[in-house]
Amino acid sequence: MQSIEETRSRLKGLFNITVTPFTATGEFDFPALEENIERVIGLGYDGLLIGGTYGEFAVMTCEERAELFRRVMAIVGDRVPVMLCTAGSDARTVRELTQLAGDLGGLPMVTPPFVSEITDGQIVSFFEQVAPLSKTGILIYNAPGIGITLSVPVIERLARISGVVGLKQGDLTPTVIDRIAHTLGGQLKLFCASDLVFAGPMMAGFDGISSTNSGALPELILATYRALERGDAKTATRLHALWFPLRELARKHGQPQTTKAIMNLRGFKGGSVRQPLLDLEGAALAEVATALAALVAEPLAGMAPAAAH
Question: Which structural domain, as residue segments, surrounds residue 211?
Answer without folding.
Answer: 4-230
